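chain below, 153 aa
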Amino acid sequence: MDLKPSSRETKTAHLIAYSSLIIAILYAIHLFVILDDSVVKQMLINSGQKPSDNAVGTIKNSFQFTGVMYILANLAGIISIWNRHTYLWWFMFAVFTSQILYNLINIGAVYGAILDSKSMINILPLTIVMVMSFILAIYMFIVSIKRKSTFNR
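prediction:
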């Protein structure tokens, strides 16, 4: 087995690492700056519910708790700079695909509430996270099929 990683393997690892860092930063901006009480209240109003402080806090905490788990999972991708392991490859693939699926569940309600209570630019972080996760998941899947391995192992 080759001890020195190939250039292609290193470039792929750096792409995954830096992209996952960017995704983590943008998702944190979405969760802690954009998704505030006014957006959650608007989400409840748009769904025909009466927004109480308890409901707003519960929904916001739910989004943030799950979001922190995705932020930490995305930050795990930085490890691929130093350790290019097959398990890390498939873990990051699972993170990207599950993040897409999780956000698609409420995308209409979240986008509607953001557009109603804030400006159009505030949907950019979540949109970029979704697009980057989708592109990386497809890229990783195609690379694993084309190379018949992950990180050339």
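Residues 7-146 form one domain. The first helix runs from residue 7 to 34.
thats it, cya
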